[in-house]
Amino acid sequence: MAETGTVRLAGASDIPSLVGLRLAYLADEHGIPEAALDPRIAAQLPAYFAAHLNRDCFAALYETPDGTKAAAALLVTREMPANPAFPTGRAGTVYSVYTAPSCRRQGIASAMIRLLTETAEQQHLDCVRLSATAAGRHLYEREGFAVIPPHYTEMEYICKGKG
């Protein structure tokens, strides 16, 4: 269980661990070795976390009793024009919920999600959204997330100058 370690909000000294866990998440999510990831990703992450951590990006971090950082999850907040779904205009999105394979199925992800939803409440967000995999859906539902019916078709524009 997560009680054998500590789940807490990350601070500036944790940025190298957050970078490593984000890269591990991306490799795991895309089924590729970390070495195959675009090197621009690893180059961008330290500056991103330095600029945004505990401002508009909050990171739940799990640390084992021996000090190993073995799991992380991100809550990115944003302000937008208010509407009926976001009456204060403040919302968040959870990204990169990752637990090292040796620490999975111990309640760590649930503990991190609880910390992030508590943080969202403290930040006065209207809601927090995430995109769940089939494997993660039940975890998120247990923590109070609900499936939202689509009102729109999600679309994306890829910028020509990308990269």
Give the biggest beta sheet.
5 strands, mixed
In quaternary terms, these chains amount to single chain
- What is the general shape? globular
Annotation field: number of helices:
4
Task: Give the total of beta strands.
Answer: 5
Structure, explained:
This protein is α+β, with helices and mostly antiparallel strands and 163 residues long. It has a single domain, classed as Gcn5-related N-acetyltransferase (GNAT) (Aminopeptidase). 31% of the residues lie in helices and 21% in strands. Strands 1-2-3-4-5 form a five-stranded mixed beta sheet. Helix 1 packs across helix 2. The model has no long low-confidence stretch (mean pLDDT 93).
SSE blueprint:
Blueprint lengths: L5 E4 L5 H16 L8 H14 L4 E7 L5 E11 L10 E10 L8 H15 L4 E3 L7 H6 L21
Parallel strand pairs: 4-5
Antiparallel strand pairs: 1-2, 2-3, 3-4
